[in-house]
Amino acid sequence: MEGKRITVVSSTQIPHIVRRVCGQALGCGWGDIRVIKPYIGGGFGNKQEVLYEPLCAWLTRELGGRVVEIELPREEVFQNTRSRHPMSFNVQCAYDDDMNIIARSCECFSNQGGYASHGHALAANAINAFRWAYKDKVGCHTQATIVYTNIPAPGAMRAYGMPQGQFTVECMMDDIARKEGWDPIDFRLKNLMPEGYADPFNGIANHANGFPETLIAGREASGWDEFKAKYKDETGPIRHGIGMSAFVYKTGVYPISLETSTARLVLNQDGTCQLSIGATEIGQGADTVFSQMAAETIGIPTSWMHIVSFQDTDVTPFDTGAYASRQSYVTGHAVKR
């Protein structure tokens, strides 16, 4: 503590949110909390939650402002921080003889452990993933249920429910293609979400579509047709196979939450610039991208752009953080403007 103000140093993806939650937990003004995020990487979504920072801040206040450190042994990391959600799905699909998907349904059950964490939004994202990649002629019904159990609580991990939902829909597509004797790529090409498609549930639109071109290029580069023809009659205990799957992912958290980013750019006397942003660099390359964006917008070499690679909520402009693959798109617009 410095006077009545508390300084919290944390390897976090969301420094400004850490400040707000610490203030709420301690019953003090948010301005009484200062959060410093050093230049340190890692997280993969697991640092998108405020777990130990308020406890550490409370302890230092209880001890008259002395420095307090909370460090977890490996066992507590696995037991008391966040893991990925185990999910199970029940799916149904109606299709016609021309490989057109007519309608689908997906029921998701997500094991949330003992605490809510990001469970509700994450399960919603998983069934979004099931719905998005392919377009139904009639419609798609999805439902997610969160189950609380006596296990360590899962939370926001990389891709935020999308792997579970995508794995499910891709297994379904392969099962149908295998049952009907259809080529898996042809089946997907017939039903891919088209450019301009808007999700009827949340209005998120598909502004660019490289799906068909990617599948066709992959088919040619892998020798897909030749491989399948060569080994189609193969027998015996050892056999050759070739497979594929598709993946769709959105940017940001809208419309579940608002997207807010800020950037500060300072011109130095020698013509170089300092760039400060509230979105954190955790090893994903955000600092490089933002430096390039700012330099290109201004018209100076990237080497003239000096980015501040740590966050300090006393001076760093507000940003909700590094998550949801949002930074290049959302924070990038703030940098460009």
Low-pLDDT windows of residues: none
Estimate nothing, just give the exact number of structural domains.
3
Strand order of the largest sheet: 1-2-9
Number of strands: 9
Overall pLDDT level: 93
Rg, please? 24 Å
For the terminal residues, how far apart are their CA atoms? 37 Å
Structural description of this entry:
The chain is 34% helix and 17% strand. It contains ten helices and nine strands. The model has no long low-confidence stretch (mean pLDDT 93). It has three domains: 75 residues, Aldehyde Oxidoreductase, domain 4; 145 residues, 2-Layer Sandwich (Aldehyde Oxidoreductase, domain 4); 74 residues, Aldehyde Oxidoreductase, domain 4. The protein has 337 residues and is an alpha/beta fold. The strands form three sheets. A three-stranded mixed sheet has the order 1-2-9. Strands 3-4-5 form a three-stranded mixed sheet, with helices on one face.
Describe how the helices and strands are arranged:
Layout: E1 6-9, H1 15-26, E2 33-37, H2 53-62, H3 74-80, E3 87-95, E4 101-113, H4 119-132, E5 139-148, H5 162-180, H6 184-191, H7 211-222, H8 224-231, E6 263-267, E7 273-277, H9 286-298, E8 305-307, E9 311-312, H10 327-336
Quick synopsis:
The chain is α/β, with parallel strands linked by helices. It has helices at residues 15-26, 53-62, 74-80, 119-132, 162-180, 184-191, 211-222, 224-231, 286-298, 327-336; strands at 6-9, 33-37, 87-95, 101-113, 139-148, 263-267, 273-277, 305-307, 311-312. 34% of the residues lie in helices and 17% in strands.
